[in-house]
Amino acid sequence: MLFFEFLYDIMDWCVPEGGRAKDEPKGKTMKTDILIIGAGPAGIFTALELIKNGCKDKITFIEKGAAIEKRACPKSKTGVCVNCKNCAITTGFSGAGAFSDGKLSLSADVGGDLPDLIGYETVQDLIDYTDKIYLDFGADKHIEGVEHPEEIKAIRRKAIQAGLKLVDCPIRHMGTEKAQKIYYDIEQYLLDNGVEMHFNAECLDLIIEDETCKGADVKIGNNVERIQAREVIVATGRRGALWLEVMCAKHGILHQPGTVDIGVRVECRNEIMEEINSVLYEAKLIGYPKPFKNKVRTFCQNPGGFVSQENYDENLAVVNGHSYKELKSPNTNLAILCSHNFTHPFNQPIEYAKKVGELTNMLGDGKMLVQRYGDILDGKRTWAKELENSNVRPTLKDAVAGDITAAMPYRAMLSIINFIKSVDVIVPGFAAGETLLYSPELKFYSNKIKMDEDLSTSIAHLHCLGDSTGWTRGLMMASVMGVYLARHLCKRG
Asked: Using CA atoms in the order 423, 429, 432, 437, what is the torsion angle rounded to 10 degrees?
């Protein structure tokens, strides 16, 4: 418990002079019917579905970042990350979704554990429904991964030979630039229908009395204000997972430590990935490599894409990947993630992953580390001059050539190395010496909130949605969770 008390104390950095808002804040008190904390896909689709069902309740968003039309990463001009307080890539309307590759996974087999909570068929029906909403707002009608059944069989045969599982998942690829336009149109639709949005605003604390959530204390501009609400929805995304963990500890919101993923972002030439890219667009592969047999999987494949840096709170920088509809690079990048499940007495999986990231950031002076796969096997660091002479040139230009193994846990590193060797059976050349590995790639969704089938937490009138809950992973499943909650709220009246 001391750990959570410490985390809550450091949140004072974000609170104005006068200390933490414990009772009634000095600013004014606002009232709303439904308060949504976080304007990512989960919160957005909650509001959309409420409106579509004729809900007349007042809906209010609190979002740490900017409106989508005002989100801009300075790196596009400066060429280097300037460590903005609120990273434009991860915060703002639509969350990280606006600057991601914009892939919508159309199968209930992909995207987290929500089917375990509300049922597989229910989730698949909601995916089909939510997909139509994305189409209504302009998503590409083309679906990847369904046009070449015989080629897919051949790839699956190789995967079986390699001891890996190929997961079938149709994908609708919006693309980074198209996703921003789609979410902008959704933002304007919500505003036109009376939804209230406070951007560059921060939730300082939840108001919980007698095990009932009655609103939140927020910082809007320079003012600390109290918002009273009938229903409170926390949808803070992976970036807000640590904040939600602190809230759970402070207010007794039932939760349990879940899985934390630690991995790398792999980059190789498009020629190596040509068959996978053209047949599947994204190969979702799962394996349990020896000797530890941790679950290792591929995630977020970006053909012709670009590796990017994202900044989280407390100066933590992580690697990610983007893919545009028009702008293409000569490389393909994808994440390889090693899942860690901890047992009693350890209950701080998010903090564990953060420590891995912080150590890697220290070695790279706040930048991403990149190392050639062959150099890892040879037990040597990678030098910048070696990258200049390689077939695979980093698309993340300010990544620092170095040694990612100096910070990566042995269990995760060895599992990733052996997984790459298995993928090489399916994709010859994937384990080439020049293949690049960037670190750290971390996914913060390990704090699993205990909820019933109505998505109600152990605190009355408090609901938690999206990747910060530990139940979903990715744009589509987070969106689906929002639609599902909205329908239940409408039934309540």
From this structure: -50
Query: In angstroms, rounded to a whole number, what is the distance separating the alpha carbons of residues 357 and 290?
Result: 24
Q: For residue range 55-75, what is the model confidence (pLDDT) as tens digits?
A: 999 999 999 999 999 998 887
Give CA–CA dist 461/201, Å, rounded: 22
- What are the pLDDT digits (tens) for 112-159? 999 999 999 999 999 999 999 999 999 999 999 999 999 999 999 999
Residue owning tokens 């009273």: 228
DSSP assignment of 103-130: EEE--TTSSBSHHHHH-HHHHHHHHHHH
Gap between the Cα atoms of 360 and 117, Å rounded: 35
Asked whether residue 436 falls in the same domain as residue 481, the answer is: no
117-130: string of b/e by CB count within 10 Å (b at 16+)?
A: bbeeebbbebbeeb
Q: Which residues contact 447 (CB under 8 A, 6 or more apart)?
A: 241, 244, 245, 248, 255, 257, 258, 349, 350, 468, 469, 470
Indicate the residue among 409, 425, 443 that finishes a domain: 443
Contact call for residues 207 and 213 (beta carbons, < 8 A): yes
Residues forming a β-bridge with 317: 311
Segments forming the whole domain that contains residue 462:
2-136+176-255+449-492
pTM of the model: 0.88
**How many domains, the chain?**
2
Contact (Cβ atoms closer than 8 angstroms) between residue 337 and residue 263:
yes
The residue-averaged pLDDT of 178-204 equals 96
Asked if residue 120 belongs to a domain, the reply is yes
Same domain flag for 249 and 351: no
Cα–Cα distance, 30 to 201 (Å, whole number): 14
What is the greatest pairwise CA distance in the chain?
66
Name the DSSP class of 445. -
CB 213 within 8 A of CB 461: yes
Q: Could you tell me the two tokens for 454?
A: 């109505």
**Nearest C-alpha neighbor of 167 from the set 226, 84, 109, 106:** 109
Task: Give 247: exposed, middle or buried? Use CB within 10 Å, 0-12, 13-18, 19+.
Answer: buried
Which position has the token pair 């918002």?
A: 227
Burial class (CB in 10 A: 0-12, 13-18, 19+), 481: buried
DSSP 280: T
Is the pLDDT assigned to residue 45 strictly greater than 60? yes
